[in-house]
Design a protein that fits this description.
163 residues, 2 domains, three-stranded antiparallel sheet, 3 strands, 66% helix
Length: 163
């Protein structure tokens, strides 16, 4: 169900993906390519985008050992700016890739019968879970309503007036 609702999210590329693009581009187009390290790319981001804007795109990923490490999750404009800081050709490649990803999102996904049934099953399970939560919380809510009901009750000040 989450995959269906992610259509409103903009297409993004991580700093890891951009570094892979840069290294692949260098391997194909340079006689002695120098591999870009992700840490070097990370250091360049605030210089290219500015410290304030770069913070907006900060993210975290899990590496192969399970550690949480910093990365960036760029939208199209920022990904292109970062690629352009290395080469205009690379910017065109990143731009084309992100445009293709946007176009793919615009196309409605054709769901198989199995996927439709899985979504229906998931929705039904969520509905049952919510009904169980309501059934569990309803007596507590009723008790709180009873406690909060002030009809026919008196405060200490009101009682002191009767004495």
């Amino acid at each position: 169900m989450n995959a269906l609702m992610s259509k409103n999210n903009p297409v993004t590329m991580t700093s890891l993906e951009i570094v892979d693009f840069i290294n692949e581009y260098r391997s194909e187009n340079e006689s002695h390519p120098v591999q870009l390290r992700h840490s070097d790319f990370m250091a360049k981001v605030p210089k290219v985008l500015g410290l304030e804007l770069s913070e907006k795109f900060r993210s975290v990923y899990k590496d192969s050992t399970g550690r949480n490490l910093p990365c960036y999750q760029f939208e199209k404009r920022e990904a292109c700016l970062m690629a352009m800081s290395y080469s205009y050709d690379l910017q065109a490649i990143v731009f084309d890739r992100m445009t293709a990803m946007e176009e793919a999102l615009k196309q409605p996904k054709e769901l198989s019968r199995k996927e439709i049934l899985l979504y229906a099953l998931q929705a039904e399970e969520e509905k049952l879970d919510l009904q169980n939560q309501v059934a569990l919380l309803e007596p507590k809510a009723q008790a709180l309503e009873t406690i909060a009901n002030t009809d026919g009750t008196y405060t200490i000040r009101q009682l002191s007036n009767f004495c």
